[in-house]
From TrEMBL:
Keywords: Membrane, Transmembrane, Transmembrane helix
GO cellular component: plasma membrane
One GO MF term: ABC-type transporter activity
Protein name listed in UniProt: ABC-2 family transporter protein
Record's keyword annotation contains Cell inner membrane: no
Record-linked Pfam families: ABC2_membrane_2
Length: 261
C-alpha cells in the first residue's frame, strides 16, 4: 500500500485547501444566517414565485425562510459544485501526472503490476474524496450547532451520501480521462463538472432536457430535492452507480493496454 499512502500524501495539501474552503464557507454562511434571517424570510416568497429561476435553484420546492431551507437551497449548491470540481481535478491528475512528469518509467519498473498501480491510485482518490466530505459534513454540523438548530437527520445524511456518490462518479469519469491522456486534462475535467451543473439547471426548466436528467450526476445530489422530497429522482442513483462502474472498468482496461512513454 506504499503507492496508496504516497498519493494521499502528495494530494494532502490540495485536499485541505479545497475541504476547508468549501467547508469553511458552509460554516460561515450558516453562522451569518442569524443576521440576515429577517430579510431572507421576507424574500423567500418572492424568490419562490420567480418562475424558471425558482425552478432552476429549487426555490419552488424549498423556501429559504428557515435555516434548513437556506442550507438546502443556497449552501448545498456550494458543496455540490465545489465537491465536483475537487473530484474532477483529483481524478484528472492522478494517472496522467506520471507521464507528464516523466516518472512513468520508474513507476512501471517497480515490482507492481499495472492493475495494482491503478487500484491503489483509485483507492487513494476514494479516500481523499471521503476525507473531503467528512470535513464538509463536520463544518456543516458545526454551523448548525452554532445556530442551535439541527437539520433532519435522514435528509442530511441522504444529501451528503448523494453528493459523495456524485463526486465519486465525477472523479471516476475524470480518472478515465486521465488514463487516456499523457497530460493532466485539468481544464477539460473542470469544464465537464461545470457543464453538468449547468445542464442540471437547464434540465429543470427546459422540457426537452428533463428526460436526460437521470443521466446527470447533479440530478440526484440536489439539496432542494432531497430536503423537500426525502429522495433523489427515481433511477438516478442506479444510473450514477452504473456510470461509475463502467468508467472505472474502462479506465482499468485502457491503462493496462496503453503503451506508456
Amino acid at each position: 500500500m506504499h503507492l496508496f499512502w504516497q498519493e494521499c500524501k502528495m494530494n494532502l495539501k490540495m485536499l485541505l485547501i479545497w475541504a476547508f474552503c468549501v467547508g469553511g464557507l458552509s460554516f460561515g454562511c450558516l453562522c451569518l444566517y442569524h443576521s440576515v434571517a429577517d430579510s431572507v424570510g421576507q424574500m423567500s416568497d418572492v424568490f419562490a414565485d420567480m418562475g424558471a429561476f425558482s425552478e432552476a435553484l429549487g426555490m419552488d420546492k424549498m423556501g429559504i425562510g428557515t435555516l434548513e431551507g437556506y442550507y438546502a437551497v443556497e449552501i448545498c449548491i456550494l458543496i455540490s459544485l465545489g465537491g465536483a470540481m475537487f473530484a474532477a481535478m483529483l481524478g484528472a491528475g492522478i494517472l496522467a501526472k506520471e507521464e507528464e512528469g516523466h516518472t512513468c518509467e520508474f513507476l512501471n519498473a517497480l515490482p507492481l503490476g499495472r492493475g495494482r498501480i491503478i487500484g491503489e491510485k483509485y483507492a487513494a482518490m476514494f479516500a481523499l474524496l471521503a476525507a473531503f466530505h467528512g470535513i464538509c459534513v463536520a463544518c456543516s454540523l458545526a454551523g448548525f450547532a452554532w445556530m442551535g438548530s439541527m437539520p433532519d437527520v435522514g435528509h442530511f445524511v441522504g444529501y451528503h451520501g448523494a453528493v459523495f456518490l456524485m463526486c465519486l462518479e465525477m472523479g471516476t469519469v475524470c480518472f478515465l480521462l486521465s488514463a487516456l491522456q499523457s497530460r493532466k486534462p485539468l481544464g477539460l475535467s473542470i469544464g465537464i463538472a461545470v457543464l453538468f451543473y449547468l445542464l442540471d439547471l437547464f434540465g429543470r426548466v427546459i422540457p426537452a432536457l428533463r428526460k436526460l436528467k437521470v443521466l446527470n450526476p447533479f440530478s440526484y445530489s440536489n439539496g432542494a430535492d432531497i430536503f423537500s422530497e426525502g429522495k433523489a429522482p427515481d433511477g438516478a442513483w442506479a444510473a450514477g452507480a452504473a456510470v461509475t462502474i463502467l468508467a472505472l472498468g474502462l479506465a482499468v482496461w485502457v491503462y493496462r493496454r496503453r503503451d506508456l512513454v
